[in-house]
Protein: ATP-binding protein
Organism: Saccharothrix hoggarensis
Amino acid sequence: MTDQLADHHWGVEFPALAEELSAIRARLDAWLVREGLGEDDRYDLLLAVNEAASNAIEHAYGQGGRGTVHIEAEARPDGAIRVTVTDHGAWRVPRPALSTRGRGLLLMRENVDEVLVDRQPDGTTVTLVLAPSRRSSGATALPPPPAAPPQPPPEPVVVTSRDGWVEVTVLGDVPSHAAPAIRRRILTAARGGTVPVVVDLRALGSRNEGLIRGLRAVAEAAAAAGNRLVVRAPEDGHARRALVAAGVDQVIDMVPHG
């Protein structure tokens, strides 16, 4: 088992055995350090990669099955990190766990910005993307100026469990930098899109670009699980106008109240 190294690329193929994963994580982590990824981002990405690889080992080949898993990572010119985890087996999990309804997909979505699953008869490829806006500086970089600390995620986001669905009420502004936090909060409440969710934007502030970006990702996750995201947005409100302007109204169901 030898690392495949090139400019801003890393890859490895290894036997589909759980005991191989610790060494694989350490080697991928070393490459991410060389690419300048900070500790928090490395932790999130490694967690998602480990989950994807664990799923391949468990579900593609089964207990005692023989096969290999291939991981390839790329530092893209735009600053994003893209990792693919590929197996060549036939998944044997009952449908609820096999589909995007599983906890594994939720865990991946909570830790990276994009998760794509391509299942074919001859194998499955999971693609994980860490967006450039998420990338923090490496250990050798200068610390940020103390006068400009990162702002906390917007609060409050009120999550209420209903009978068979979840209601998420957003109060106040959600600026652009808060998009990952709001996306994760809603996806966690909706278990990766597997639980029907209604997002109430009637009290959303005028700064809402972060919420609009986050809702598109939530809508895609819900659609992959066979659900449709419902959003409460007043007819003449700024939330509805922003959703329409961004084209998000095409992938959600908007209602004025209810």
Residues 172 and 205 are 4 Å apart (CA to CA).
